[in-house]
Amino acid sequence: MAGDREPPHRRLSGERSIVILLTVSALPAALVALDALWRWPYALEVRWTLATAIVVTWLVCAAMAYHRVVSPLQVIANLLGALREGDYAIRGLATSRSSALGLVMHEVNTLGETLQRQRLSAVESSALLASVMNEIDVAIYAFDRDEQLRLVNPAGERLVGERAERMLGRSAESLGFADYLRGETPRMVERGFAGGTARWELRRSHFRRDGLPHTLLVFADISLTLRQQEQQAWQRIVRVLSHEINNSLAPIKSMAHSVRRIVEREMPESPRSGEVRQALTTIATRSDALGRFMASYARLARLPKPSRGAVRLRALLQRVARLDERIPVVVNPGPDVTLQADADQLEQLLINLVQNAVDASLESGGTVSLTARVDGRWVEIAVEDEGPGVADATSLFVPFFTTKPNGSGIGLALSRQIAEAHGGTIALGNRPGRRGASARVRLPL
Predict the structure, then answer these.
(1) Fewer Cβ atoms within 10 Å of its own Cβ: the N or the C terminal residue of the chain?
(2) What is the pTM of this model?
(3) What is the DSSP letter of 3?
(4) 348 close to 413: Cβ distance less than 8 angstroms
(5) Cα separation, 156 vs 172, whole angstroms
């Protein structure tokens, strides 16, 4: 900086001192030479010429010595100034390290190379950190000591539902994070953000930036992990129940048919034979129904991994809308995008949602709509109805839970399993400000 430099008159005084020292150091030799020359028996013109030559040589040698000392120092000063300003590419001319000035020049050049490597490493590390923060699916927020937001990653933007430009500089209180800057960590937090309601693991740590303390908040969505564990538990239960019930149903059904044949053959005219046959028919019919009931639940345990292929979203929505003819389903397909998904599984997901929406709308005589829109790298499909709405959305995706008299309780659970197998999400709730429910499926493009 200019304020750190020596005033010009002081710098010039230092340079003059070098000239004076060099001149004074050669003065005795010059005086001796001039005195000896003046005593020689030569003509006056010759003595004046030789004397002038001695003086000029003396001054030229002093100037050259001054240049040899001052010029390298000026170069070194310029190099150090460039390093201070962050210009690490400039280098001094290579000189022999056998001299003191050459050794200093070599060390300055080495310092510049070291600083250049360190800055390049810092830039690469910053780029890597920024890339990781952009791609990681964990919400990260950094607050300064005044609890003002100073850093947020894209996952944090999606969680709050606002752009970073509108969030940075705001207080933790206005963002709803004040309580998370205190208390124990790690801990479980269940809260609804703009990105959805889920269970989050909150972790908090501290770091320093520019010498000032900052607080780092990290929100990790553990709902998917917990749901996967729940699905595995339900799948194990379903497999056990299916095995045990099917093993019991097979002999019951077989014995019912055998006893009915015996009754028809041995007691055709008995007054109670009709009642016995009816009871045996009921046993066989309910055995078949119970077998079909367990087979539908077994689908939860046997859902295969998606076999992905190109799926035209617009054609898929129109095809699903035509499958249920009880009431017209309005399709707003949005952009004609192509998904990499399992067409059969995705169709089954939408069929389940449309059937639920139609069932709800039939009660009130409302309509059902299918809408798709693109949101960045995601496509969102909304199935909306004008039915009575959802009373309690917390248990809707639990297997075996149903609000319908003849429902099986696997449609929504299977739909969520399909959505998450495709890397997406599904949410169901009441329509804001309007009657009815809305099921929203988000899938990656």
Answers:
(1) N
(2) 0.46
(3) G
(4) no
(5) 13
